[in-house]
Amino acid sequence: MRDYSRLDATAFSRAMTSELHVVVVGAGALGNEVVKNLALIGVGRLLIVDRDRVEPSNLTRSVLFCVSDIDEHIARGTPKAELAASRVAALNADVDVHSHVGEVADLGMGILRQADLVFSCLDNEMARLELSWACTRLDKPLVDGGLGLINPSSGMVSVFPGVDGPCYACRKGGERRRSLLQELQGREDPCGLKERTQQRDAVIPTTPTMASMIGALQVEMGIRHVCSNAGAAASAGVSHRITLHPQVHLDTLRFERSPNCPLHDPESVIRDVCQRTDRSSEAWTAAQLLAETSDAGGFLSLDWPITARAMCRQCGHEWEPMVRRARFRKQVCPHCEGGDVAETEVLTGIDASSSWAERSLADLGLPLGHIHEVVLGSTADAPRRHVEVSGDLRARREAAAS
Ligand SMILES: [Zn+2]
Ligand SMILES: [Zn+2]
């Protein structure tokens, strides 16, 4: 039995934390620190999301990945999210901890919908924007941490309060926002994008000291935000910027939603969710979803374009990648492994007459436990319905319990 008495008079009292359901996206240097603190204070439920596997370079900044057994995990290719979750279980058995190996966009919105608080511990701008957009639509407070803002001894924490507040894209300058949004919506020219993505994915030098400071600040601000009720209906975001070298400097700024940010369309906000506990993505087709959701004329609007068909210019091989367009751009031909591949069909929506409508939602490459958007009409302001494939979530819970 753990003794939480030293936390009782703090913002992290047991009454506050034991009921909290928290999602941490990213289990690198920052994510390790955030997860460690959440484990120590004993949040009720914790989901750790990361797509990568443990690597030797993680060790200098990752408190949860121990030297003693790391060779074994590197050899086995253990995902970071799974290893971090097993460490949480060892640190504090009171935390109901789970892991999800995948990208932000693979995380069904139904999974995020269950959270009270979301932490972004990502080093990739696109993934941070994807997560922020999902949190805005679901009205979830998001605490974003970033390292290496100006130099390796700097970082920033931002709280995005939810549906009434600003988002990650609101913080960006006009031009940067435009190109990020084009990329999010899959409209960007693929060639230019490949180059820029590679540049942006370049390794940012980070230190364990900054990771622990920024990670600690994220947890402090996030827990205070949800527990103080200050978060209710907050319309402003707040950022703390820290620099430790060459001068020690901390500044705080409040910011509003940018009037030019297009990610705040009221129709995209997910308020009323139709929960289909009787359906699973493996078996439910897009046509059935449409028939059971709209009387006629509706279509399934995809959150991001999906590359449905592709062709290799080198060997002529044709295939159905069924992946998000952003991910297709990193793919090679499955036949000859050449990189000169072209999209021949991209889907942004599916109506009942589409040849794709008879495919199951899983076969269409859509995440399990997702909340799908059905647009009832063809005008821009047509009403929408949000349908959660809740049967996937139940299957997930049952699998975790067994
Ligand atoms: Zn915005
Ligand atoms: Zn080929």
Account of the protein in words:
The structure is a single chain. The protein is α/β, with parallel strands linked by helices. The protein has two domains: about 260 residues, Rossmann fold; about 130 residues, no CATH class. The chain is about 30% helix and about 20% strand. The protein contains twelve helices and 15 strands. The strands form two sheets. An eight-stranded mixed sheet has the order 3-2-1-4-5-6-7-8, with helices on both faces. Strands 9, 10, 11, 12, 13, 14 and 15 form a seven-stranded mixed sheet that branches. Strand 14 and strand 15 form a beta hairpin. Helix 2 packs parallel to helix 4 and helix 2 packs across helix 9. The longest helix has 20 residues. The structure holds zinc ion (2 copies).
Quote the average pLDDT. Answer: 90
End-to-end Cα distance, whole Å, is 24 Å
Shape: globular
Number of separate domains: 2
> Major sheet, described briefly?
8 strands, mixed
Residue fraction in strands: 15-25%
Any idea what the radius of gyration is?
Answer: 21 Å
Q: Under CATH, the topology of the largest domain is which?
A: Rossmann fold
Q: What's the total number of strands? A: 15
- Please report the number of helical segments: 12
The first-level CATH class name of the largest domain: Alpha Beta
Widest β-sheet, arrangement of strands: 3-2-1-4-5-6-7-8
Based on secondary structure, the structural category is: alpha/beta
CATH architecture of the largest domain: 3-Layer(aba) Sandwich
